[in-house]
């Protein structure tokens, strides 16, 4: 069976700086995967590469067996902070754009998500709070019927009570065959829904392990295990 994501010997440089070096990763369908790492470790960059947004890398990245950017964009749902829309654009206009561009975008599913996430249709992006923008990004990303969802720090501006509800809700919104990668600096909040954890350190994937394995073998919580791998670094905040 074809792996959902297959990365071989990936190295990515930008402006003469090596951001990721010799990354190898295999992901299969139907898992919740946490992506952890310190600030600047390369989490966003890795997501952009998997989504086909970042280009000019060395090595191989394939999704559902295809390395083409068009094929990746067709099966990977990734919304990077509503970039590209003017401040005057309304939520309704953004939704219409998604419907037009992505054949797998389900308006019915978006409406369910928007109701749950308390989004209004007529508001302009300019007046949305950080948390409301994040809610919109979550709704747009999950309203596609994709094979792979990438959520990059989706909850940083969302209040704690809503965060818990949204994290729980994600278990229902994403189909069992899909895989979802979530990056977060608050592993303790998402640890209970994760099947696997990826840790990026020193420009590469230091660990990719099942969370059950970490809990059983290391006798540490997911967040304590992550912190233990970074513990030797004095400048880690
Ligand atoms: N255009 C660029 N040119 C050079 N370096 C860049 C560029 N964009 C990002 N970087 C660097 O790439 C590294 C990885 O950045 P990235 O945003 O992927 O990290 P991250 O793990 O998502 O960080 P955070 O947790 O702070 O969001 C950082 O050191 C950053 O400074």
TrEMBL record:
UniProt-listed PROSITE patterns: ABC_TRANSPORTER_2
Name the UniProt record assigns to this protein: ABC transporter ATP-binding protein
Domain annotation ABC transporter: ranges: 5-227
SMART domains: AAA
Residue ranges of the TM segments: none
Gene3D superfamilies xrefs: P-loop containing nucleotide triphosphate hydrolases (3.40.50.300)
PANTHER family, sorted: ABC TRANSPORTER, ATP-BINDING PROTEIN, SKFA PEPTIDE EXPORT ATP-BINDING PROTEIN SKFE
Nucleotide-binding among keywords: yes
Keywords: ATP-binding, Nucleotide-binding
Molecular function per GO: ATP binding; ATP hydrolysis activity
């Amino acid at each position: 069976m074809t792996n959902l994501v297959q990365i071989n010997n990936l190295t990515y440089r930008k402006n003469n700086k090596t951001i990721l070096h010799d990354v190898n990763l295999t992901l299969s369908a139907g898992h919740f995967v946490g992506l952890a790492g310190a600030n600047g470790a390369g989490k966003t960059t890795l997501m952009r590469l998997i989504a086909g947004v970042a280009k000019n890398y060395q090595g191989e990245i394939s999704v559902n067996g295809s390395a083409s950017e068009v094929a990746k964009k067709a099966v990977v749902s990734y919304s990077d902070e509503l970039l590209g829309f003017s401040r005057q654009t309304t939520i309704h206009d953004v939704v219409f754009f998604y419907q037009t561009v992505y054949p797998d975008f389900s308006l019915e599913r978006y409406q369910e998500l928007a109701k749950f996430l308390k989004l209004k249709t007529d508001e302009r992006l300019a007046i949305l709070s950080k948390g409301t923008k994040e809610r919109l990004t979550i709704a747009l990303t999950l309203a596609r019927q994709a094979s792979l969802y990438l959520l990059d720090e989706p909850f940083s501006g969302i209040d704690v009570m809503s965060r818990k509800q949204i994290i729980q809700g994600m278990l229902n919104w994403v189909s069992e065959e899909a895989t979802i990668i979530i990056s977060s600096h608050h592993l303790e909040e998402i640890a209970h829904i994760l099947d696997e954890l990826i840790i990026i350190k020193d420009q590469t994937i230091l660990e990719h392990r099942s969370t059950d394995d970490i809990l059983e073998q290391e006798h540490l919580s997911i967040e304590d295990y992550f912190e233990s791998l970074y513990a030797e670094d004095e400048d880690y905040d």
